[in-house]
Amino acid sequence: MEIITIKDIAKALNLSTSTVSRALRGSYEINPETKRLVMEYAERMNYRPNPIALSLKENRSRSIGVIIPEIANNFFSQAINGMESIAYNRGYHVVISQNHESYERELVSTQYLAQRRVDGLLVSLSGESNDLEHFKELQTKGLPIVFFDRVPQDYITHKVIADNFAGTYEATEHLIKQGFRRIAHLTSPSWLSITYERLEGYKKALQNHDIPIEDSYIKYCSHGGMILEEVEQAVMELINHPNRPDAIFTAGDRLTTTCMSLIRREGLRIPEDIAIVGFTNLVTAHLLNPALSAVRQPAYEMGQLATEFLIDLIERPKATIRFETKKLDTHLVIRDSSIKATT
């Protein structure tokens, strides 16, 4: 297959090569209609930038580092797909590293990617990360960093998050309207942004329906579900509670699937004995037994937006930037796991 170049696109559209080059980079100097024509033609002709040539010309690696808790998490795998969809068409490679909920591994991954001279970092914090000096040091030296999903509160840069409060509020209110009153919450480390936001949504829904908040119904798993024994202890404390919950809202993929497994292991039925709603992007949620009610995040779109923010920082480092925190809507999908049986 013949490889198409910028010169070929310029000739076909009767544009200069510099105009085509800037349009492909998403430059603000090119009007939107010209950008659209160039991007559509490039896509139709299967144009792909030559990253080696670009890196030599611009003194960049043309690579983006991504640090996440784990690829096996459906949310993060979907977010990575979104990142690559933008990065690839802009001539960047994506280098992925997992922190496995460990601060030390996050630190090592950050140092490694910096040594590899990535042009910027996309980061979702580990469950142990309450010290961000390693990121601040690199940012001070000029390395662009964008956070997504699990974001630091007091850190000046772009951030992309889901509306965790609204998603959890809607899920908790759904359980209440189904007739459940003893609703527990199984969640991640208390210092993570997603944990705080989801907990606030849970509490607000209870308060608005005059249901007392029971602290013993709120269980934190400091490794986000990656350590089975930690989740098992939390779930068993709920199952053996003197006033056992009749519903549990879980805040992540591993927490959800492990919770369901343990409930069944103990001879209890879902939702007859304990209903379940998960904050999860499991693609197989509808295949579980029973089919799982879930709050879904727009993971793919979050990955895309975070990458667009980062590439803008990379390619326009001296531009006046007003840093943004973009909050995207979640979506509650109601299935059998949270529908109260009628008698």
Automatic annotation (TrEMBL):
Organism from which the protein derives: Runella rosea
GO terms, molecular function: DNA-binding transcription factor activity; transcription cis-regulatory region binding
**SUPFAM superfamilies documented for this protein:** lambda repressor-like DNA-binding domains, Periplasmic binding protein-like I
Q: Name one Pfam family in it.
A: LacI
- Gene3D superfamilies listed in its UniProt record: 3.40.50.2300, lambda repressor-like DNA-binding domains
Q: Record's SMART domains?
A: HTH_LACI
Q: What is this protein called?
A: LacI family transcriptional regulator
The HTH lacI-type domain covers: 4-58
Q: Does the keyword Transcription regulation apply?
A: yes
Entry's CDD domains?
Answer: HTH_LacI, PBP1_LacI_sugar_binding-like
Domain of life from the UniProt record: Bacteria
What UniProt keywords apply to this chain's record, in alphabetical order?
Answer: DNA-binding, Transcription, Transcription regulation
